[in-house]
């Protein structure tokens, strides 16, 4: 070993970052790799502010795993790119009065410099930027393929609209203020005091409005069942699985047709519990009444219904269904017949019925549904109890005992042939009866709605579609002659006149007037040089679509492009894709559970069905990292607690920052960044550095061998399950052992390798310059533990301070009763020492189990 030298993080980190880039150590041979492993981190929006400590934590968590796999013999592809199209980038460009193109060139350069300063092992030869024409050329291709498959359509709909960003939002981009983590504001940025039932834009926190626009949709609902069925087949964080399952929202029930009296039309309702002997009215959503009933509503009722519909559609979904709100409604003047009671029952319109539940029409059963009960009481409608409650049927109905799929329900009463039958059995018998009579059919419904893909902005991928008025008049369009559709029935929209662009890419022009106007059209609608084109079918004057794509289309397939960035003629090379995909390990935020992750799964399934891919799930393994906080609060510019990693890297070094951000808490938790803690991590790295110049022989080689293999086993298993904090704690314990008991060449080599994924720079320096091993430690073989060296007669003693877990120490079984030794070991632990240093304490010791330091407060 060389003589002791001072640890200089600045020179060491710059030295090895340059060496790694020159040697392309992190760039696998895409075509020849024998043991490919695709390790992917969710690419970021390149905001002007740059990366913060939360990015450092999550990206380091992914990088550690990639380095671990590389040392386990895998050819690791770990690329990085930028989700650069969309509102995030465009709004900042508008704010500073600069074009998105110019602003992003600067921001992306800064992001790349920051990622490199972290020491991440990215392959910079495979990078994607979604606003680069070489990428969005193929995003347009994805859209075109979905259109040709019958999975894209354009129609007028009531959509979510952000008045500040002046664009449509998908349902998944609309949240409660709490979910978005933002205080609600109006379009001018003023705070909104009354937040009850409000929904906001997930990006800016502006209260969302409802607006009727003609926009493009993807038929993601065609894949609802498959998206649900595949969830047990993928290894994802449980909270993300739950979020996807709930958002898909499958429910089993029955659709029942009610014929409207004196008309040929019918109203189809959906219910999970057909307690039809208790149905005393029907209620329909305002949208249902507008689209299906207005023409037949009596003139005496029509004007009131129209006014009510208009008022209702100005409300958000949450305002309409808010628990406890005063029930409102309007009578249509229409009646239907209850199949079972043979009574005529009225049809009402009410805003608590939503179009995204079932058919948009439900039967009112006020004896057993709280909302129906409140509605019936307000408007004087009959209330009939048909299921025996907890107290029987006696007495006046003052409160409704709500039924939830038969829970705590009794037997049927006042129900003719169902009387005396247990509730759940009666529901099945009713469904059978209705199907036999031809009055209804069993169905499944889903909460999931089709994906609104069009945006009325400038900075996005052009939608490669052309509309020809002449073809529309003749009934011509691409879908007229195409029989290879994944979705055959196209009768729900006016497809005539629409043709996909075949000559891609459609380049986004550079324009100065890119500020959105909020009039339902994008800025490109003001540029005839962009939208005036010839019809590709008949040659007539035609118009190119001026909406651009939702940014989530860009990210729905980016993982397919990374390995194939060297291929210009195809979006992804077939053989390369087969070799590297699906992604082996995906690492990202749980906040994208029902946005990016759902859309990426959908697009992958479609491309699989179109025979472009040999797999249908893009991410078999997904780990959802947590959200870092600062001094107990969420990081935000308004609180002034955003941590700029550049400052910490300059002061403490990248290795210190990397280790600290993954040590302070579980990767899927909410670790709290505190300046005092990072100083302790820097001391530890210096302690490791100094250990390599000790030249202290081991006191007991057998015990050292045992301790070494225990450490290898624990660190290996912890990294495999992303328990980085406990892996580092185990390494710290091993370092303490080596200081107290001496080192060997084998132990120092293994320590360097175990630490390499966490602290790549200092370990590279020690590996090459001190241990004189072959470059690089990151290409060395991960140390293997041998079970014969792992003692089974060891105890783990829990260390508490005032009854709270602070650490743990390991001793041999024979030492489990040695209070003096265990106390000494616990007091050496930095995680314990900081809680009791300088304070009086007494020791409570339970032999072989726990040592508790009771500190005077």
Tell me what portion of residues adopts beta-strand conformation. 15-25%
- Largest beta-sheet characterization: 5 strands, parallel
Average pLDDT score: 91
Instruction: State the oligomer.
Output: single chain
Shape: globular
Radius of gyration: 32 Å
Q: How many helices in DSSP terms?
A: 29
Major sheet strand order: 2-1-23-24-8
Distance between termini?
A: 48 Å
What are the segments in which pLDDT stays under 50 over at least 5 consecutive residues? 392-407
Give the helix proportion (percent range): 25-40%
Secondary structure: number of strands: 31
Structural classification: alpha+beta
Written description of the protein model:
This protein is α+β, with helices and mostly antiparallel strands and about 850 residues long. Helix content is about 35%, strand content about 15%. The radius of gyration is 32 Å and the shape is globular. The strands form nine sheets. The chain has a five-stranded parallel β-sheet. The protein has a four-stranded antiparallel β-sheet with strand order 4-3-7-16. A hairpin with a 4-residue loop joins strand 3 and strand 4.
Question: Which helices and strands occur, and which strands form pairs?
Answer:
Elements: H1 9-23, E1 36-41, H2 53-71, E2 75-77, H3 87-96, H4 100-117, H5 133-148, E3 152-162, E4 167-169, E5 174-175, H6 177-180, E6 200-201, E7 209-218, H7 224-229, E8 235-236, H8 238-248, E9 251-259, E10 266-271, E11 281-284, H9 286-293, H10 299-312, H11 317-321, E12 330-337, E13 344-349, E14 361-364, H12 370-379, H13 423-437, E15 440-445, E16 451-452, E17 454-455, E18 465-467, H14 469-474, H15 478-481, E19 498-500, H16 528-531, E20 532-534, E21 541-544, E22 548-549, H17 551-554, H18 558-561, H19 574-580, E23 585-589, H20 596-609, E24 621-625, E25 629-630, E26 633-634, H21 645-652, H22 654-663, E27 672-673, H23 675-691, H24 701-720, H25 724-741, H26 745-755, H27 760-770, E28 794-801, E29 804-812, H28 819-828, H29 830-836, E30 841-846, E31 850-855
Parallel strand pairs: 1-2, 1-23, 8-24, 11-13, 23-24, 25-27, 28-31
Antiparallel strand pairs: 3-4, 3-7, 5-6, 7-16, 9-10, 9-15, 11-14, 12-13, 17-22, 18-19, 18-21, 20-21, 25-26, 28-29, 30-31
Helix pairs in contact: 1-27, 2-22, 9-10, 21-22, 22-23, 23-25, 24-25, 25-26, 26-27
């Amino acid at each position: 070993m060389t003589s002791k030298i001072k640890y200089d993080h600045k020179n060491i980190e710059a030295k090895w970052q340059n060496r790694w880039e020159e040697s392309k150590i992190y760039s696998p041979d895409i075509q020849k790799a024998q043991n490919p492993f695709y390790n992917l981190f969710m690419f970021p929006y390149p905001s002007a502010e740059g990366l913060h400590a939360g990015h450092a934590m999550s990206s380091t968590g992914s990088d550690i795993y990639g380095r671990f796999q590389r040392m386990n013999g895998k050819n690791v592809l770990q690329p990085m790119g930028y989700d650069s199209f969309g509102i995030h980038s465009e709004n900042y460009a508008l704010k500073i009065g600069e074009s998105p193109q110019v602003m992003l060139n600067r921001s992306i350069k800064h992001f790349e410099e920051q990622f490199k300063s972290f020491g991440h092992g990215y392959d910079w030869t495979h990078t994607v930027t979604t606003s680069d024409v070489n990428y969005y050329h193929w995003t347009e291709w994805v859209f075109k393929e979905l259109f040709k498959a019958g999975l894209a359509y354009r129609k007028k709909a009531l959509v979510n609209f952000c008045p500040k960003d002046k664009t449509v939002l998908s349902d998944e981009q609309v949240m409660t203020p709490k979910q978005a983590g933002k205080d609600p504001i109006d379009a001018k940025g003023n705070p909104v005091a009354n937040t009850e039932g409000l929904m906001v834009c997930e990006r800016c926190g502006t209260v969302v409005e409802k607006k009727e626009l003609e926009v493009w949709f993807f038929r993601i609902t065609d894949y609802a069942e498959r998206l649900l069925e595949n969830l047990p087949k993928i290894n994802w964080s449980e909270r993300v699985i739950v979020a996807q399952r709930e958002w898909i929202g499958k429910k089993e029930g029955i659709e029942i047709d009610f014929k409207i009296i004196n008309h040929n039309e019918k109203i189809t309702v959906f219910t999970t519990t057909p307690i039809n002997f208790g149905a005393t009215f029907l209620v329909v959503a305002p949208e249902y009444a507008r689209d299906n009933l207005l023409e037949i509503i009596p003139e005496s009722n029509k004007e009131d219904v129209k006014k009510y519909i208009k008022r209702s559609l100005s409300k958000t979904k949450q305002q309409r269904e808010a628990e406890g709100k005063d029930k409102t409604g309007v009578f249509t003047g229409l009646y239907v017949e209850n199949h079972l009671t043979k009574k005529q029952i009225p049809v009402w319109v009410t805003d608590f019925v939503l179009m995204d539940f079932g058919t948009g029409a439900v039967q009112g059963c006020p004896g057993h549904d709280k909302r129906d009960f409140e509605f019936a009481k307000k408007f004087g409608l009959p209330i009939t109890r048909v299921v025996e409650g907890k107290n029987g049927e006696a007495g006046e109905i003052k409160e409704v005992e709500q039924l939830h799929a038969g829970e705590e329900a009794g037997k049927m009463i006042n129900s003719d042939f169902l009387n005396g039958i247990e509730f759940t059995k009666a529901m099945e018998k009713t469904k059978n009866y209705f199907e036999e009579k031809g009055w209804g059919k069993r169905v499944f419904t889903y909460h999931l709605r089709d994906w609104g893909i069009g945006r009325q902005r400038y900075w996005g991928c052009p939608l490669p579609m052309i509309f020809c008025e002449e073809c529309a008049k003749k009934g011509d369009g691409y879908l007229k002659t195409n029989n290879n559709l994944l979705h055959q029935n196209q009768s729900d929209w006016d497809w005539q006149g629409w043709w996909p662009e075949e000559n891609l890419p459609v380049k986004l022009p550079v324009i100065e007037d890119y500020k959105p106007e909020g009039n339902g059209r994008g800025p490109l609608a003001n540029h005839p040089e962009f939208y005036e084109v010839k019809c590709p079918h008949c040659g007539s004057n035609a118009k190119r679509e001026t909406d651009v794509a939702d940014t989530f289309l860009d990210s729905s397939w980016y993982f397919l492009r990374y390995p194939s960035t060297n291929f210009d003629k195809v979006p992804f090379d077939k053989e390369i894709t087969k070799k590297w995909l699906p992604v082996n390990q995906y690492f990202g935020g749980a906040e994208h559970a029902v946005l990016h992750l759902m859309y990426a799964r959908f697009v992958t399934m479609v491309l699989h069905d179109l025979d472009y891919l040999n797999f249908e799930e893009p991410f078999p393994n997904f780990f959802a990292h947590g959200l870092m906080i600062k001094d107990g609060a969420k990081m935000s510019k308004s609180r002034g607690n955003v941590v700029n990693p550049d400052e910490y890297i300059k002061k403490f070094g990248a290795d210190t920052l990397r280790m600290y951000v993954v040590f302070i808490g579980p990767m899927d938790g909410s670790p709290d960044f505190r300046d005092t803690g990072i100083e302790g991590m820097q001391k530890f790295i210096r302690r490791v550095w100094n250990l390599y110049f000790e030249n202290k022989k081991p006191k007991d080689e057998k015990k050292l061998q045992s301790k070494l293999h225990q450490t290898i086993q624990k660190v290996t298993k912890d990294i495999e399950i992303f328990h980085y904090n406990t892996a580092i704690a185990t390494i710290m314990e091993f370092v303490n052992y080596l200081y107290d008991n001496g080192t060997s060449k084998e132990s120092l080599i293994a320590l360097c390798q175990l630490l390499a994924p966490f602290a790549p720079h200092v370990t590279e320096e020690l590996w090459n310059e001190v241990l004189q091993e072959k470059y690089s430690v990151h290409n060395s073989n991960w140390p293997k533990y041998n079970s014969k060296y792992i003692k089974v007669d060891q105890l783990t003693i829990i260390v508490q301070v005032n009854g709270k877990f602070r650490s743990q120490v390991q001793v041999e079984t024979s030492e489990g009763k040695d209070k003096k030794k265990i106390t000494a070991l616990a007091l050496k632990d930095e995680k314990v020492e900081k809680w009791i240093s300088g304070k009086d304490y007494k020791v409570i010791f339970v032999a072989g189990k726990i040592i508790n330091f009771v500190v005077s407060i």
